[in-house]
Amino acid sequence: xxxxxxxSEDARRARxxxxxxxxxxxxYAELLRDITPMLRRVAGxxxxxxxxxxxxxxxxxTLLTLHAVRHTYDPARPFTxxxxxxxxxxxxxGARRAMRRSAHEVVVPNFExxxxxxxxxxxxxxxxxxxxxxxxxxxxxxxxxxxxQLLKLKEMSLKEAAAETGxxxxxxxxxxxxxxxxxxxxxxxxx
Amino acid sequence: MxxxxxxxxxxxxxxxxxxxxxxxxxxxxxxxxxAVALSAVAMVVGLMGLxxxxxxxxxxxxxxxxQVAALGTAIAAAVAALAAGVPGERRWKLWLPxxxxxxxxxxxxxxxxxxxxxxxxxxMEFHPDFxxxxxIAMVGLVPAVAMVVMLRRGAPFHPRTMMALGxxxxxxxxxxxxxxxxxxxxxxxxxxxxxxxxVLFTAVAxxxxxxxxxxxxxM
Lengths: 191, 219
Description:
The complex is a heterodimer.
Chain A lengths: L2 H19 L3 H22 L5 H17 L10 H26 L13 H21 L3 H12 L4 H8 L3 H22 L1
Helix pairs in contact in A: 1-2, 2-3, 2-4, 3-4, 5-8, 6-8
Chain B lengths: L1 H14 L10 H23 L5 H5 L2 H24 L13 H26 L8 H20 L7 H23 L5 H27 L6
Helix pairs in contact in B: 2-4, 2-6, 2-7, 4-5, 4-7, 5-8, 6-7, 6-8, 7-8
């Protein structure tokens, strides 16, 4: 991309970010959709040879972090270096997490059957899965755990859970999204 | 499937986009911290009373140089700490305090050496002066609290570095204030007890950084 085009692209994103800081949801959604392919591309370059799911994890982590620290963007400065600094941290975190995970993983042969008696096998599996799920939920950060407890275990509506916790409906949605993502990762790791 | 998840996440994030107060530019944040911190230090110094020989001390080049270096370290460390909380800020800013800190340490080392040459090992004054620890803590309390409040508004990607630099800023400013009312100028005493306290606070705060700055969950 020629430098002038990159500059105008950056200026456009900076304008959208300023609007997002002012609470303009449409501009914010446009900005996030606009930067996501670029984040995928750059994350892939920074962390070559990993699966698309790892890259997508990094992209989602970057979007969540961008959301949490969006007040640190200074409109007087270019947008892209700010975004790339966040991506750099999240890519490094993703690589560290993957390394930790692989260091603790042991490859074991996959036995198709453990018991001849099928009901016994499934009963034990169900108990194991319940335990693993409870363990994974208890390992979540407090806000996410609360969201899972209220929305999934107590089956409250978003409005009821918002009234119970004092959190906004959107914040609960974000907490739930993050919780499900963490649970998926934890269960696929343990399973 | 994965891409659909990201789309849903974007929708959820956009739905949560309420107006927020952007962080002020770095220069304004440093000025605000200095205004609060210097006022607090001036208040403590006023309460404790200026040392009677201050006018004479200020005319000594070494004392003046050490005070300027301490103040310079405080300002540079504040710039570095607050810059560390802004993604994409230039990395060289994190190294700013190294210059005044080197001057400060160098001048104390030089004074130590001069006193050694003049007095020899027996003449050099060294005794426990634990009062420096609470002294620096007392003078630096408000600057440190103000710094932590400001650091928590930043992005805690480097919590240890941010807290260590922020505490260095507060402790250096506290030592600057302490020497305006605490008449202990023997170089070895200043080096061990005052500089030692500054280093101790900086190290402990650096270790506590992730806990203190983890305001918004995992960063």
